[in-house]
From TrEMBL:
Transmembrane segments: 6-24
Cofactor (UniProt): FMN
Domain Nitroreductase: residue ranges: 55-218
Entry protein name: Nitroreductase domain-containing protein
Keywords on record: Flavoprotein, FMN, Membrane, NAD, NADP, Oxidoreductase, Transmembrane, Transmembrane helix
Matches recorded under Pfam families: Nitroreductase
Domain of life: Eukaryota
Length: 241
């Protein structure tokens, strides 16, 4: 007679233990685990939306369209950031980093720095005073401004583009979660933000990057634009051979 292999014996023991634990729980009056519902996100008004619906609900909402009388709570922002943390990441490097400017003083300092940097970088004949002031005002119109940063692997084992893509996925998570909480968001970019000066201002490493600034605030009533996209049929190629 052939003796069972150690692997089979181990599996048999594990199964026996699992059954025993189940019986103990049942006798102790343990409640059965409820079946999971389809993935949904609860909005601040209590409504549940499925994932596809939420994705189509998301909008870029500019800071001038935020309601300055309403401040997004730190608790909600932390939930939004936690959602960002669950983005896909090759080799689990988790390269996304977020620097949150959360007070009027901090927002003013960031706005002034970017405005001065814009004035320094742009040719004199292209400088616009209105744009200069707007870079400051946009920060003060927001509940928070989040610097979107990519922390580069020291080993550089992964191509940089993969780390950038992972960070972008984290921002998409962040934006979707914000929409789910009724919060507006806007991802801003441009030469001053991508500059070495901004990187130094944020305290980033030499190989790290700032990929943008994400503005956060409650939208004013009626200031959420209608979204539109061209047909997906024009953007997909099906390969059958």
């Amino acid at each position: 007679m052939v003796s069972p292999s150690p692997a089979i014996t181990l599996l048999s023991v594990a199964a026996t233990v699992s059954v025993a634990l189940y019986v103990v729980k049942q006798r102790a009056g343990a409640k059965p685990v409820a079946a999971k519902e389809p993935a949904t996100t609860t909005f601040s008004d209590g409504k549940k939306w499925d994932a596809d619906e939420l994705i189509k609900h998301r909008r870029s909402i500019f800071p001038q369209d935020y309601d300055k009388s309403r401040k997004v709570s730190k608790e909600i922002l932390e939930k939004i950031l936690e959602s960002a943390n669950w983005a896909p990441t090759h080799a689990r490097t988790e390269p996304w980093r977020f620097i949150v400017f959360s007070t009027p003083e901090a927002l003013q300092r960031l706005g002034q720095f970017e405005a001065d940097l814009y004035k320094k970088m742009v040719p004199p004949h292209m400088f616009m005073e209105k744009k200069y002031k707007k870079k400051i005002e946009a920060k003060l119109d927001s509940s928070y401004v989040i610097a979107i940063c990519m922390k580069r692997q020291e080993s550089e084992k992964l191509p940089e583009i993969e780390e950038v893509c992972a960070t972008a996925c984290a921002v998409q998570n962040l934006h979707l979660s914000a929409a789910g909480h009724g919060v507006g968001g806007y991802w801003s970019s441009g030469p001053p933000i991508f500059s070495n000066e901004m990187k130094e201002f944020l305290g980033l490493g030499e190989k790290d990057k700032c990929l943008g600034l994400f503005y956060v605030g409650y939208p004013k009533p009626g200031h959420v634009a209608h979204g539109a996209r061209k047909s997906i049929k024009d953007k997909v190629q099906w390969v059958t051979k």
